[in-house]
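Data card: per-record layout.
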Amino acid sequence: MSLNIKLGVSTWLWTSPFKTDTISLFSKIKSMGYDMVEIPIEDPALIDTKRVKEALKEFDLVPAICGAFGPTRDLTNEDVKYHDTSFNYIESCLEIAYEIGAGFFAGPMYSAVGKARLVSPEQKK
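The structure for this 125-residue chain is written out next.
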């Protein structure tokens, strides 16, 4: 039995936020032996998908997308405005994923990263 395993690395190891200029890391990532690159999307407006897609092709890297769900992107918040912000952000990430050919979108999309709260037994049900 043969496994087709690809190894990847996140650009978060070097920089934050990912922006179009971050594609300068792709050469290094490929030279280190990685097949995939995780692109964390903190601000979709910072990404020129055409240039990113070209760089992925140039360095033969498979992209994956990672969401960044901060305090304003929280589907568990009781305020509906946070839901709208979250869904708009998710749609932007999916558009970027489609445009660059990423078949994987990771991230804890249900809540803001690091959010801790106690809920009542009724809410748990």
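Known properties of this structure: Residues 15 and 22 are 8 Å apart (CA to CA). The chain has a mean pLDDT of 89.

See the next section for split statistics.
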